[in-house]
């Protein structure tokens, strides 16, 4: 084609065939990758079920010595790994991100499953209320209440909470390049997990992620600073949820 400087009927037909083959190969590769991602999700789900079963068995097995409390450094590392391995939502052309993808909240009738991580509003020892990172133990449809465990084992506390005091965490990361509408936007009020802690605090979005692997940049409310907010800190998509409380003036 370059030599003749034109597209003859022969080369047009051949080129169309090459494009068709390349498109079919790309679609086949895409399907294989989706099946692989589904298999990874299935394996992770089975591992989570085993972990929960082992936890329940440990709670009710009096014949074994009590398990040692996890060191805080190990817990922080596990939380970081959980954020890094949160799957990225990859929809087909025309698909919209589902609930619990990035900033998209759960549906009104959604019930978190045992083992799911949530932000839970509980009463602290001093009587004040705070949002903590917790794990769902069970949900009662009779009372519409959750039982959750504080993820920080130093507290070793179990809380019974109404649904309005529990916010499910995202189950997928949103891709800023394809689904920016599924992310919190600049100056939006959120609850974010303060770095190196297991507590959520009110914050403003300073900048949303620009790439799939990026974190949010947030400004935590902090009265020790002149403008009432901390310097920008990075928080993973996994640990940023909507705040329904009004912004403080």
Automatic annotation (TrEMBL):
It is found in: Nucleus. One of its GO terms (biological process) is regulation of cell division. Keywords: Coiled coil, Nucleus, Transcription, Transcription regulation. It comes from the Eukaryota. PROSITE patterns: SGF29_C (PS51518). The keyword Transcription regulation applies. Residues 108-249 form the SGF29 C-terminal domain. Its main location: nucleus. GO terms for cellular component: ATAC complex; nucleus; SAGA complex. Interacts with dimethylated and trimethylated 'Lys-4' of histone H3 (H3K4me2 and H3K4me3), with a preference for the trimethylated form (H3K4me3). Component of some SAGA-type complexes. Component of the ADA2A-containing complex (ATAC), composed of KAT14, KAT2A, TADA2L, TADA3L, ZZ3, MBIP, WDR5, YEATS2, CCDC101 and DR1. Interacts with (methylated) CGAS. Interacts with TADA3L, GCN5L2, SUPT3H and MYC. This is SAGA-associated factor 29. It comes from Saimiri boliviensis boliviensis (Bolivian squirrel monkey).
